[in-house]
Amino acid sequence: AAATTCEWNDYKINIIDTPGHVDFTAEVERSLRVLDGGVVVFDSVAGVQPQSETVWRQADRYKVPRICFVNKMDRVGANFQRTVDMIADRFNANPVPIQLPVGQESSFTGVVDLLEEKALIFSDSGETAPEERPIPAEMQEETRSYRNRLVEKIAETDDVLMAKYLDEEGISIDELRQALRRATINNDIVPVLCGTALKNKGIHPLLDAIGSYLPSPMDVPEMKGIHPKTGEEVSRAPSDESSFSALAFKVMTDPHVGRLVYLRVYSGQVKSGSPVYNSSKGQRERMGRLLYMSANKREE
């Protein structure tokens, strides 16, 4: 698994890219233990594949909130709705599209944002921000149907919105977005987006969705563990003021640095040279160099 970090709008997103091949199932599981949220990528032509089912069950075990990205919408045989139906059928999940593709296969040019009711059209290079346009006339009826279904699904997870929905009162976009965030974090809803990553189409809205709907470290429950001396269960709040706690989820050998241990820090702070307690060995150790990893690049 490769780890890197990016910044998008006001968010800092730490990314762990796990292998998709069945031979790396154990590495995927180790990574899932330290994730706050996940983006599950599906092939729009092949739909749900066997390894996707394995990873989904692992994510269920660790209660990882997730969103889905239906990729390769420009490929021959791409079918967005079929993939959504397969997610619901194979995983017994509640996938809810928050986008619709504008065109499919070679005619794929953008997506319709169902919450804000606008079309986002991507450039051929995919390097510039998408252009906002009115929803194409031929998609107006389909968009209305999908948006009504989206509002209904979100309202089902929130009593206040359900009352408004039944009374046919207007529900604002902000109310829908906040309720969708809560439902995603609680694993009640799985938002579904689409695009073609190779051409960078659909990636801008995907990054927006990661910031809007997946949890920050402050949104997930406090980490619990067993005190090594008393044997009692203790919890750690995700705060700089809490005692230091972290999980080593990956160990690898680097030809220039030596042994590298990847840490997910849950609470507190640590510096190079600080003494830390290794609960696996039952002894104190001194923290070595702290490196900031971006794939195979290192920063002090």
TrEMBL record:
GO process annotations (BP): ribosome disassembly; translation
UniProt keyword list: GTP-binding, Mitochondrion, Nucleotide-binding, Protein biosynthesis
GO cellular component: mitochondrial matrix
Keyword Lipid metabolism: no
Signal peptide: none
InterPro entries referenced in this protein's UniProt entry, alphabetically: EF-G-like_DII, P-loop_NTPase, Small_GTP-bd, T_Tr_GTP-bd_dom, Transl_B-barrel_sf
SUPFAM superfamilies to which the protein is assigned, alphabetical: P-loop containing nucleoside triphosphate hydrolases (SSF52540), Translation proteins (SSF50447)
Domain Tr-type G: 1-218
GO molecular function annotation: GTP binding; GTPase activity
Cross-referenced PANTHER family: RIBOSOME-RELEASING FACTOR 2, MITOCHONDRIAL, TRANSLATION ELONGATION FACTOR G-RELATED
Protein name, UniProt field: Tr-type G domain-containing protein
Source organism of this protein record: marine metagenome
